Amino acid sequence: MPTSQYALIEAFGRAVEQGNAVIFVGAGLSQGAGLPGWEELLETPSRESEIPSESDLPLKAEYIITEGTYHRERLEQHILAEIATTSPRPTSTHSSLSLLPVNQFWTTNYDTLLEESIPDATVVEVDSRIQVLGSVNRSIVKMHGSIGTDDGRHKWESPPVITRSDYENYERDWPRTASLLRATYLSKTFLFLGFSFTDANIEILLSLSRRLSSDAGTRHLTVIRRPSAKDSDARRLHNLKVRDLELSGVRVLEIDDHAEIEPLLERLIRRTRPTRLFIAGSGETTDTKFRGYCSALGVALANKIDWEICSLGGPSGWCVSREVARIRRAENTYSPEQIVTRFRGSTAPPPPMDERVGTAVFSDLTREPLVKGTLAESRAMVVIEGATRTKEEIIWAAEAGLGVVPIAGSGGAAQEYWQENRDNPPELGGQTVDIAVWERLGSDDPHVAARAAVALLSQAMYETQ
């Protein structure tokens, strides 16, 4: 049975955290940028060579060369020209790939969209350079060749893999790359993106899964585009192929269009961010009610020692951080690196602190870029009371995809956001929110509200299953 989006995100997210994640990019991502697919690339040579209908595209390319109108060099130059004249630009999907903390990418695509999106990656496009992967932090392996430039003219960096013979002789012609692919498949977790069962390169996945299934287990994942429901035969064949992959140990997430990959990657980015909690809100430190909610949240967060608690040093952040530090010191679990206060740029001296808590980070940034930058590297936000600026920060957090948990009982902006979403709370951590838990955020008992908040924050942090 095909996997769910949440299960895929959770499985690959764990692989990222363990440093074992690899992404394999297929043709669907390049076609999303306007590049022609294999059918289009071979259309003119096939017509001029009078090749009959053939669904096996590498075999069709073989027949084109065998027929003789297009010898090998002419076919290569035709494909090169078709890709080069398109002048594609990386899409938002390519940009999202660059934001994932993944150090190794594989692709069968000839174009340079992936390396343009990940400029810090070392590109390996010929078999003889595969050994450089041992000395670089981030890499892209272009296992079927790549297009390059020479004095502004497009060229092949190495002979491209095109025909059925190229596929069958791959291990002989690209021995280092083939060996590394097998080793990587056996030792890491692959996420295959941009493939469909009509893609000529899908056989790489099919071959790996069949030959290495018993040793690789069930850790590999793929996103596959399903055919239209109107074509019952194609859908039936698709379902059988999905089942074949699953029996070989590959979990399959089905989509209807490659455009669905972008929101999937956005969720993966959130899942793989640091386990950082941003505390927003404000209130009067002399207000007993406000202090009560801050203290209760600090107590509830004290045992979350793997989370970084971060704020800009306002009343909410400072009160919660101080309470967390007090408890952790008493329990010998205190680590200053896990409680961070970030101060925005100012010519004035830093504000006085009545005690030393956590780590202080001083920035030259003004409030907005500092908050937005911090939110972009956080998984969740918790809100205590607050006013106009807090409302603004809630909007920024939602735009950054963070899970926002308002302690509504404290009043202010937190209560307003909670009330607005009372009947239909936003998803947290890719899952729906328990309405009963959301309701307890509005409790007038600070400890009840704080416990509910931490339960939902755990979900936003992807701690729950």
TrEMBL record:
> What keywords is this UniProt entry annotated with?
NAD
InterPro entries named among the record's database cross-references: DHS-like_NAD/FAD-binding_dom, Ssirtuin_cat_dom
Upper classification of the organism: Bacteria, Bacillati, Actinomycetota, Actinomycetes, Micrococcales
Please give the SUPFAM superfamilies that the UniProt record associates with this protein: DHS-like NAD/FAD-binding domain
The record's section on Pfam families has: SIR2_2
The protein here is known as SIR2-like domain-containing protein
Top-rank taxon? Bacteria
Task: Tell me if NAD is a UniProt keyword of this record.
Answer: yes
Gene source species? Paraoerskovia marina
Query: Where does the record place the Deacetylase sirtuin-type domain?
Result: 2-272
